[in-house]
Design goal:
Layout lengths: L12 H9 L2 H9 L5 E2 H7 L5 H13 L3 E5 L7 E5 L1 H19 L13
Antiparallel strand pairs: 1-3, 2-3
């Protein structure tokens, strides 16, 4: 049996998963999916500032890890929805806590907006 997961180890796969789920766009998309299944256009409007390319990549990554489920309704025109899986819903609880912490501690976080990357 291998070593237990350790995000501090650069060789541990858990670090890659942490990087995915803790990315700005992943956190915002997971938050946007809290109300249930959503279409691409809704997510584009809800997550202000995300590009179509970044939204598509984020949804693909979240789907590949089992956090988001994509459903193609096989209609013309195309109708595709995304929703959180049970795994994604369990992560959503943690995302909600992190967002609440940031919003409630904004005054203590230096009083100035962080620089944009």
């Amino acid at each position: 049996m291998g070593l237990p997961p350790n995000v501090l180890s650069q060789r541990c796969a858990s670090r890659r998963y942490l990087a995915l789920v803790a990315s700005k766009w992943s956190l915002l998309v997971i938050n946007a999916l809290d109300d249930g299944p959503a279409r691409n256009g809704f997510l584009m409007r809800k997550v202000e500032g995300i590009s179509q390319k970044m939204l598509t990549q984020t949804l693909r990554d979240l789907e590949a890890t089992g956090i988001v489920r994509r459903e193609d309704h096989r209609t013309v025109p195309p109708h595709v929805t995304y929703e959180l899986t049970p795994l994604g819903k369990s992560l959503r609880q943690e995302v909600r806590s992190l967002i609440a912490w940031v919003e409630s501690h904004m005054p203590a976080l230096g009083g100035v907006e962080p620089k944009r990357p």
